[in-house]
Sequence to fold (317 residues):
Amino acid sequence: MTSAASYDVVTMGRAGVDVYPHQVGVGLEDVVSFGKYLGGSAANVAVAAARYGRRTALVSRVGEDPFGRFVCRALRGFGVDDQFVQTVRDLATPVTFCEIFPPDDFPLYFYGRTPVAPDLMLRAEEMTGRVADAIRGAGVFWVTGTGLSTEPSREATMAALDVRGRRGSTVFDLDYRPTFWASRDTARAAYAAALPLVSVAVGNLDECDVAVGEREPDAAAKALRAAGVDLAVVKQGPAGVRGDGAHGCVEVPPRSVEVVNGLGAGDAFGGALCHGLLAGWGLQRTLGFANAAGALVASRLACADAMPTVEEVEELL
Fold:
């Protein structure tokens, strides 16, 4: 167990189980075998950062069931501290199925997230003690838009950001998933409250549109900066990544790979972004490294299990 004030990266949010088909290019009704993997964006980012030797921890909740035990065991296996992952009685650990239609169609089917998922049962009054020390002391603290989608998680996320006080790098993964929200307007209001409390915002064009009402990359980045962040990272899909920070803007072109499953690419990008921020790299190098990490995972089936090492990313670069 790591001292609560000595983490490189602490993430907060979704954790669950990904069940991915072994058959590619067919609907779930025709799939005959599956693989079981650790999943959830916050869990995946923590694993990705741990792959680079970073000391990481996850703040989340799982069900008091076999899948919950699997999540905690998998986290420990990947080197992620699970001491802040508690169980919730009477709620099932979420399970996510996907269909795989490369290169760009990967429908998701969420089970165990209604009426509410365990990770959305985090509460503001729990952001004290060792949890607060971990959040305050981490080099990078990472939260997601899904954590703002409902109560009590929304209040807990805001309380965690208040505890953090914009120390170090405080990253907001916009992570907008329509199925978790009542409306885009509801999400925009919640995002507007969170953006002044973070130093880095990361999202694709649709997520930027939800957050600040802009879809054009340059306008979206500028709107995120105007909302209070020091660094806006706008993911443009096949057009690459744009970063807008205090020392100017950079554009990073896409990496060409044969896509197998694109679902883990964003989380791989996130863990690599954390690594670059902690290393003190320049924006061009940081985003180039993150983009390559995302491309590598897009060329693989799983998410957490597929996160690359430094050597693998550098080989691609």
